Amino acid sequence: MDLCGTTMYVTALANSIACQLSDEDLDIAAAVFTQVGDTLATISALRSGCKKPSYDAGGQ
């Protein structure tokens, strides 16, 4: 994945969305996208955790 290209695309997308929304709607959209990002990060972390072996409290 090209990191510079990705960040430029995301910035352009954010600017495009922001130009179409009122200040109030932009606040709501920002909160929604933040929640989506946080939820995706949680799902990703849980998936990664499920791939690791689990150990009991006895360390065995």
Account of the 3D structure:
The protein has 60 residues and is mostly helical. It is 78% helix and 0% strand. It contains 2 helices and no strands. It has helices spanning 3-20, 23-51. The radius of gyration is 18 Å and the shape is elongated. 0% of the residues are buried.
Short description, anyone?
This protein has helices spanning 3-20, 23-51. With 60 residues, it is mainly alpha-helical.
The first-to-last residue Cα distance is 39 Å
Q: Hey, roughly how much beta strand do the residues contain?
A: under 5%
Helicity range? over 70%
| DSSP strand tally | 0
Number of separate helices: 2
Low-confidence stretches: none
Cα-atom radius of gyration: 18 Å
What overall geometry do the principal axes of the alpha carbons give?
A: elongated
Q: Mean pLDDT, rounded to whole units? A: 89
Biggest sheet statistics: none
String of helices and strands:
HH
Structural class of the secondary elements? mainly alpha
List the helices and strands and how they pair.
Layout: H1 3-20, H2 23-51
Characteristic terms for this protein:
60 residues; mainly alpha; 2 helices; 78% helix; 0% strand; elongated
